[in-house]
Amino acid sequence: MTYPEKLAAIRLQMKADNVSAYIIPSADPHISEYLPNHYRCIPFASGFTGSAGTLVITHDFAGLWTDFRYFEQATEQLENSGFELVKQKMQHAPEYIQWLIEKLPVESTVASNEKLVSILLGELFTQQFSVKGISLVDKDYLDPIWNNRPEFPTEKAYLIADEFTGQSVSSKLAQIRQTMRKIGASIHLVSSLDDMAWIFNMRGKDVSYNPVVLSFALIDQQHAKIFVAESKLSNQEKTSLLKSGVEVFPYHEIEGALANIHKNSTILLDPKRNCFAYLKLLHPSVRIIKETNPSTNFKTIKNETELSNTRHAMLKDGVAITQFLKWLSENIGRVLITELSAAAELRKFRAAQLGFIGDSFTTISAYKAHGALPHYGPTQESNIEVKSEGLFLVDSGGQYFYGTTDITRTIPLGNNTEQESTDYTLVLKGMIDGCKMRFPNGTCGYQIDAITRKPLWDYALNYGHGTGHGVGYLLNVHEGPQVFNPTPTAVAIELGMITSIEPGIYRPGKHGIRIENLVNTIADVSNEFNEFYAFECLTVAPISTKIVKKELLEAAQITWLNDYNALVFKKLSPLLSQDEVDFLKEETKAI
Questions:
Q1: How many other C-beta atoms can be found within 10 angstroms of the C-beta atom of residue 487?
Q2: Quick check: helix, strand or coil at residue 185?
Q3: Per DSSP, which regions of 129-244 are E strands?
């Protein structure tokens, strides 16, 4: 079926049910960011492959609501699909709700598959639509028309030994149960796959880039039950979990288990990470506590084992990045290099590192104007040659058995313009200020975001994405609850949190520049004014100084840059061949 044919088939079902609008979010029953193929509903219905967006279908309009990161991609991919791009003003804001309220008649009906709607979003629908008497119904209009829909993944899961995680399953369950007692919850539902992976020291291959396993858990004070496809775990692994007080049940039995929770229970649910459909399975008299999963707060603070292993992963990654930069410098202009072939070469260098499992996200390999698309991923159709001029932005990461990496470097390839040099230096200033800041205990991400942006604001420049996101340990490259962005999220930046710092400048049709390091929050100074924290740079890879305008940098920024590159050379040179050492020495020389 073509996309217009699929759209027509959806509208036929809507008409039969007297439904005025159908909402298709980018989600699964675990409210994931990255989805198993079975739940890639937006690409199936419209052709749009970006990781954020919502389709809204009425009888006379079909639109994709997404943010500025995807405007050009969506414009291209939605052509002749029957869907139009609707440009969101704010990331992640469900602006289509107000549009529907204005468009639909009083007492209309809106449908969605409520397994793909978070509790938070479902309750927002209920509250805002009720103003106009609009009712909600749970419908899946895609499954009946989705021929050869991808099956659920069948790859095996695996358990990680305590010595690699630094904490046992039973210890993690004890922490969670203590929080449950404190807030008065008798049972806790966990749906989010990163939380499942962390709690049960379990990893898998069910979702691209994120080493997670499709599963749910119900935890009470005596028992923990996980719901996962039985073939995923061996008998030996099930026995190991049982020793930690964990029983294994088939994946689809979660729905019956929720429906049978005792009516006098009090259940703890994270409204952002559980689906609306499962909330409705609970007996009406079950008391509900809506709080962030305790495990989300626990896992974001890395223990010493996790930090030590992550530093090891960063060295592996730094070797691969250095080898890639050397390969690029030696071959650019001599052999045909494209965005796709460069990304493939970088992956080869990573794959040669011991403990490499896979990429942590789709490599953003963006030359010249493509760099102005912050989430650009080259395809066979968009792929272009990388030449020995202009700027080449490469944002990539690896999953290693020791941890997760995420790094962006913008590579000057020659004949760079004054504007490119100025923009590069200003982005570098922002990244340096973010990395070298000292801040008091209790500081939140939006404060760090503002400090990082200031060097750009001074020149009336800005960027539309956040400055940084949390990063997991052999887990999701995007991990909460901390975030560095303008939203006043009241989450303090704590010791042991790993977060990215990645300011940028994007000039459509010209170039994009982003420079990114991962940092760990460490103790710095304690005095009568407060405890002050700082950042340890975990990323170990050279930052190019070829087009830096030294006169735009302050003395402290120059010192930081030279010290950082000197440290990169010191840490990586023992791991490289002599030719690679010589290359790195030139790349990291002081300015």
A1: 15
A2: coil
A3: 135-138, 158-159, 187-190, 202-203, 215-220, 224-228
- φ/ψ (deg, to 5) at 60: -125, 5
Report yes or no: 336 and 367 within 8 Å, Cβ to Cβ. Answer: no
Other Cβ atoms less than 10 A from the Cβ of 346: the count is 23
Contact 65, 89 (CB under 8 A): no
The answer, as to whether pTM is greater than 0.85, is: yes
Mean pLDDT rounded to a whole number for the chain? 96
Token pair of 389 as six digits: 């001029």
Q: Which residues contact 364 (CB under 8 A, 6 or more apart)?
A: 374, 375, 376, 377, 393, 394, 395, 396, 408
Whether 424 and 513 have beta carbons less than 8 Å apart is answered as yes
The residue with tokens 């369950």 is 173
Helix, strand, coil shares, percent, the chain, to 5: 40, 25, 40
DSSP-derived letter for residue 360 is: S
Give the residue from 412, 404, 421, 449 showing the smallest Cα distance to 539. 404
CA 406 to centroid of chain Cα atoms: 10
* Percent over 90 (pLDDT), the chain: 94
* Distances in whole angstroms, Cα of residue 185 to Cα of each of 221, 226, 314, 394: 9, 18, 39, 46
What does DSSP assign to residue 147? T
- What's residue 442's pLDDT? 97
Determine the 3-state secondary structure of 144 from DSSP. Answer: helix
Q: How far is CA 550 from CA 81, 236, 422, 542, 559, in A?
A: 49, 60, 10, 17, 11
Sorted by where each starts, the structural domains of the chain and their CATH numbers stand as 3-145 (3.40.350.10), 158-298 (3.40.350.10), 301-587 (3.90.230.10)
3 state SS of 194? helix
| H runs (alpha helix) in 437-543 | 445-457
3-class state of residue 520 by DSSP = strand
pLDDT per position as a tens digit, 42-66: 999 999 998 889 999 999 999 999 9
Comparing CA positions, the residue from 76, 80, 101, 77 lying closest to residue 23 is 101
C-beta of residue 303 within 8 angstroms of C-beta of residue 496: yes
pLDDT (average), residues 537-564: 98
Q: Which residues pair with 218 in a beta bridge?
A: 189, 225
| HSE-up of residue 1 (Cα within 13 Å, Cβ side) | 20
Q: What is the mean pLDDT of the segment spanning 418-430?
A: 98
> How far is CA 20 from its chain centroid?
33
Measured in degrees and rounded to the nearest 5, phi and psi for residue 105 equal: -65, 160
Q: Which has the closest alpha carbon to 445: 488, 412, 391, 509?
A: 488
Cα distance between residue 228 and residue 310, in whole Å: 28
Q: What is the 3-state secondary structure (H, E, C) of 203-229?
A: ECCCCCCCCCCCEEEEEECCCEEEEEC
Is the pLDDT reported for residue 476 higher than 80?
yes
Q: Across residues 330-354, what is the average pLDDT?
A: 98
Q: For residue range 326-335, list pLDDT tens digits in order.
A: 999 999 999 9
Helix (H) or strand (E) holding 537: strand 531-537
